[in-house]
Design brief:
- With about 120 residues, the chain is of the alpha+beta class.
- The protein has one helix and six strands, in the order αββββββ.
Amino acid sequence: MKRIVLLISFITLAMVIIGCNREEDPNWSERAEIIVSHKTTDYWPGEYPPELQPMVGISIRKINETVWTKLPIDGISGFTYESGYEYHLKVKITHLADPPMDGPNRTYELLKIISKTQKLIE
């Protein structure tokens, strides 16, 4: 009986030590409110050859910022873009500590559509 208790104690201790040695996730995330432009834009991912036709993209910016960032049209997980509408979204932005060489350094996930306003396309 003592052997079984000792074995269970050893296994439990080993699991605790292994669990404590796990590295923390180096990625970090934030929640932000963003605006999605009502017009699509040209989008060239990372090492995409500029002589090829660009992909269709969207322009986004954080609420308190003026600089627009381009994403692929499907660049916000859970969000379906409809041209002609400006969106105010709440998103989770995950900053990747070790992004893929040919991919973005952050990901976007839709949390909530705050508003969707139809705009005239110039």
